[in-house]
Specification:
2 copies of one chain form a homodimer. By secondary structure, chain A is of the alpha+beta class. The first copy, chain A, contains 5 helices and 9 strands. Chain A binds a DNA duplex through helix 4.
Chain lengths: 242, 242
Amino acid sequence: MPNIATPPISHVEPLNLPQNVIKALSIDNLVFGLDEDELKILLVKQTDPMHEGKWALPGGWIRYDENLRDAAYRLLEELTGVKQLYLEQLKTFGRVDRFPTERVVTIAYYALVSAEHYSLVAGQSAADVSWQSISALPELIYDHAEIIAYGMKFLQHQVCHQPIGFNLLPEKFTLLQLQALYEAILNTKLDKPNFRRKIMKMDLLTPCNEKQQGVPHRAANLYRFDPETYKQLTESGFSFEI
Amino acid sequence: MPNIATPPISHVEPLNLPQNVIKALSIDNLVFGLDEDELKILLVKQTDPMHEGKWALPGGWIRYDENLRDAAYRLLEELTGVKQLYLEQLKTFGRVDRFPTERVVTIAYYALVSAEHYSLVAGQSAADVSWQSISALPELIYDHAEIIAYGMKFLQHQVCHQPIGFNLLPEKFTLLQLQALYEAILNTKLDKPNFRRKIMKMDLLTPCNEKQQGVPHRAANLYRFDPETYKQLTESGFSFEI
DNA sequence: TATCTTATTGTCCAATTGACAACAACCCAA
DNA sequence: TTGGGTTGTTGTCAATTGGACAATAAGATA
């Protein structure tokens, strides 16, 4: 491809960018949600006639004076109403032809959450918002299918090497709930006493000194994550090897 | 910080960008090199008066019609003469104030190579190029020290979870050479017998039935990587736990 | 041949793991 | 009131692994 001084002329409408954003740089969010033991992803339906009926990752333009992660949070909330989750940078996608009218590089952020804990509100520039099953994705704009595929692969790898997935649980939870989560993600059965020992030795959980309510059997102790250890483990990067 | 429609006015000279690059988007390369059992990083000395004497990661602007990794390879070769290595995307750094005069987001790429296998040639816009010891870095421009610190942490994590670094060794190598490699990257001393046991149990190495030549002591056995196991381990993503 | 250096094997003990037994708590129904 | 059902929690034990280090082997050299 030859070096050119200006963007290539295109038959498609040029972008109508807001004034205070960084041209050629966007954010796209991959929010994976566990919904009844099924993995889904948060998508928004496009409004503009050009992409009518197609879906997209919730994303958009980064403001000139806005940090990358802040932009990710803002765009996600604007488009879907989803907030209060932890977004982590995934990868930057910048194939020359990934965007039709201009050269646009996009920085992908991702999160893994419990789908039922969030209520979706379609923003102004979204025709619809919903959790879509990973195994039956609708038609997506640009290279968003490719980005999702990369995110999936990454997620499957990460789940074994980082304490992610803990935000899928309520603030206070039982050890069996945590175990069930791991069993679902890793698709295996785990030994209850051994799982307990292993988790507890990490000093990741602090007992709430409260018990489960309304169960027809002995009530289990409730635990919460120790945010300090959790942060340490997240930063240092460790192995679960459960 | 208020939203603004144009870049902030600064007392520093504005950027004098070539015409065919993407404004606000750059590449920086972290090339880690093992040099006599010491871990170093490839840096270039700045020429412009503003940063005189300071060093920087080899990087620069991405062309409008150039894929990200292609830009990384081009810039690395232009500045340092280093080519024929595998660059992998590390992370994108975009703090609002990371660059003094404008908003610039940079995409970092990294590689791990054997320093002595490359000859350095300082490019036109570089006053000097050299391998600098990680443990005694010179003064760096912008947030490059921060980027290097992130890259180091990433490297140390990767080395425990992926069989990377094996391309730093000759085809046939001794166990002590392999151990020295790990010690350099992890910056620790390892027990020789234990390291041997652990590595051998992975079935990653096959003996060449040859011995080291010309050493003034007992010659060690030479090994090579078993490409099949190596590939399996790379793909599945495993734990070394060394 | 004595001695030096490094390679390689062996040993010991502590810590960890996995499988499973045993006991505790609580609900519920007879 | 009592005993069975269910799940939580603690304990046990053999097998495996890990780290520290001793012991031996194989050259090279003085």
